[in-house]
Amino acid sequence: MSCMQETYAVSWRDGDGEPSSGRLELVPGGLAFTNGSTAAGVAYGDLRALHVGRTVADRISGRPTLVLERRAGEPIRIAGVGQAGIISELAEHLSSLLGEERVMSRAVVVVPLRAGANEQAAQLLHAGPPFDPQEVGLERHHAFLTESEAVFVFEADSPNAAEKLIGDGRFWSAATAWKDLVAGPPRVAEDAYSWLRPHVPDDVSFEPTPGPGDSDGGDLF
Q1: What is this structure's pTM?
Q2: 27-36, 37-46, 109-118: lowest mean pLDDT where?
């Protein structure tokens, strides 16, 4: 597949407002809309999901329209201008970026275990954490066990939330049941490499945009 564009000629509508036309640019950290001297931006982290609009209300002037759902506020709808396939290309690119942004904060802690403590550690892990993951602000929490180590993964959707959590002494004082199993101080693992398969919604197609008059509605020039 060829490299994707970073700038698009589009129409967009913020919530129930009037459509605007201009340029959409994908910049580090977000989307930048420009209409003459007026500019607006949306951070990738503010986006919750995306889908292709199927209803008349979702479409702009009957054209294929990408609906961006925000974590707060009304959705933004985007339709291409003058180019076939803009919506498919944008959907692919933004789906990938949203996947990368989905976990905004992650911390991995490695705890060395004393010899023979593996079985007791497994029992503690099966009983669940000594805290409520939701109450402390986590979105996801995993624990892994080897013969000599316990590995804890903390993930949150707020910037730096997981890092702040593991730096709070009150958080670790809750894990008193582990004090006799630990062979040394916990170590925070460095995030040296990560890869995520792009998530593409089921209703997004990367086939060429249908032409004018097709039953699904094409770009009208």
Answers
A1: 0.51
A2: 37-46
